[in-house]
Amino acid sequence: MNMFLGIFLFLMPIFLVISWGRRSSKRLPPGSLGIPFIGESIGFLRAMRANTTEKWLEERITKYGPISKLSLFGKPTVFVSGQAANKFVFTSHSSAISNRQNQSIRMILGERNIFELNVEDHKRVRGALVSFLKPESLKQYVGKMDVEVRKHFEMHWQGKQQVKVLPLAKTLTFDIICSLLFGLERGGRREAFLPCFQEMIEGMWSIPLNFPFTRYNRGLRASARVQNMLKDLIREKRVELEHKAASPQQDLITCLLSIRNEDNEEALAVNEIVHNVMVVMVAGFDTSSVLVTFIVRLLANEPAVYASVVQENEEIAKSKPSGEFLTWEDLAKMKYTWRVAMETLRMIPPVFGGFRIAQKDIEFGGYLIPEGWQIFWTTPITHMDDSIFPEPSKFDPSRFENQSVPPYSFVAFGGGPRICPGYEFARIETLVTIHHLVTQFTWKMLADNSFCRDPTLVPTQGLPIQLMPKKLC
């Protein structure tokens, strides 16, 4: 029996290729599906952890061109690259390409998360999330975020001679998430979230083998614990709203619970709230903490850039009475600081890429992408394209002046109608954090500049730095 099963698994990709070849006049992209189920997943993950993924992809492009087939995370996959590919991924109608992620992400974040929904459900859930994450709504939370950032620096940075930036940045972004998304104050309950949440994230980019010793299995179990915690919070928030002990805009959960349909019923089911709060959690936790960490690294290595960021932020600090919180208007003045953040995202994007799924047979670049196959896109190919960004290895924030970057070439937040709805949240989080960092401290690096991806960026030793406090004159 085992022998026949092995033969079947070995021959299945061959039958698929022959079948698709017969069904279309267009041929499949070049490349190989490799070992059944495993494919090139192990090689890809090794390259991520060794920080050689760009080279790994460039070798594929050199060998096969900008479009090629492979197998990743248990699914036949088409890798696409370049500005035209980005536009294809982010503008294609959802009847042709859906947001569906690989199995590891889908099972850990839940099947009702925004990436998995059909056209109407996607529109409904995205609209609900945007009602909280749009700039008009987030303006009122700048002060609350400022409180969390000040408290963080007071507890974890002040009085320290050395710190490791990445672990502390993760602590900060997690505290901001708990405060603004859940309305969950500091204490044991908030602390119980963190280890489950981190283990859940580790399982998202893994081979979906559900055995007790695998990262995927640990991620699934951690996800179940996080979902149960969120369901408890939802029950409590619903009671608070019913008794008018909470406002509809108090945090993300109360906002989502307050949205009603035409029959005056809750517009989102409980599992939709849970799964999409988890999406926002992941996006706000990992990407923002990594961005802050690498801005700290960049400022230590670029004295002229650091001096300009300090000048911009010290002018804002000096214009405010002592102790007054930052406002939306203050953030609008941090134009150069945000350009520094954008250039950091261009050179070292926290999110390496993502997956879509073909909803039907579609064609791109002269090749067939069969129904049900994954589409894998990445950020570095266009971010480091010297025909789009001259001298791409040079750090130059002026690239982002006057919105001069060509469409679909900078995709750190996606693009077009699929741009990340949490973009503004990340901007506020980053600017408030960098403001307090550069007005309170100077620093120097205590380790080299190397880093890996596991699955997001991890600098050597968590980026240890030596801290020197300073006083604002």
UniProtKB/TrEMBL annotation:
PROSITE patterns in UniProt: CYTOCHROME_P450
Keyword Transmembrane helix: yes
GO MF term (any one): monooxygenase activity
UniProt-annotated location(s): Membrane
Alphabetized CDD domains for the sequence: CYP90-like (cd11043)
InterPro entries membership: Cyt_P450 (IPR001128), Cyt_P450_CS (IPR017972), Cyt_P450_E_grp-I (IPR002401), Cyt_P450_sf (IPR036396)
Positions of heme binding: C420
Matches recorded under Pfam families: p450
Signal peptide residues on this chain, from the entry's feature table: 1-21
Keywords assigned by UniProt, alphabetized: Heme, Iron, Membrane, Metal-binding, Monooxygenase, Oxidoreductase, Signal, Transmembrane, Transmembrane helix
Main subcellular location: membrane
Cellular component terms (Gene Ontology): membrane
UniProt key word Transmembrane helix: yes
Membrane topology note: Single-pass membrane protein
The protein's required cofactors: heme
Family stated for the protein in its record: Belongs to the cytochrome P450 family.
Name of this protein: Cytochrome P450 716B1-like
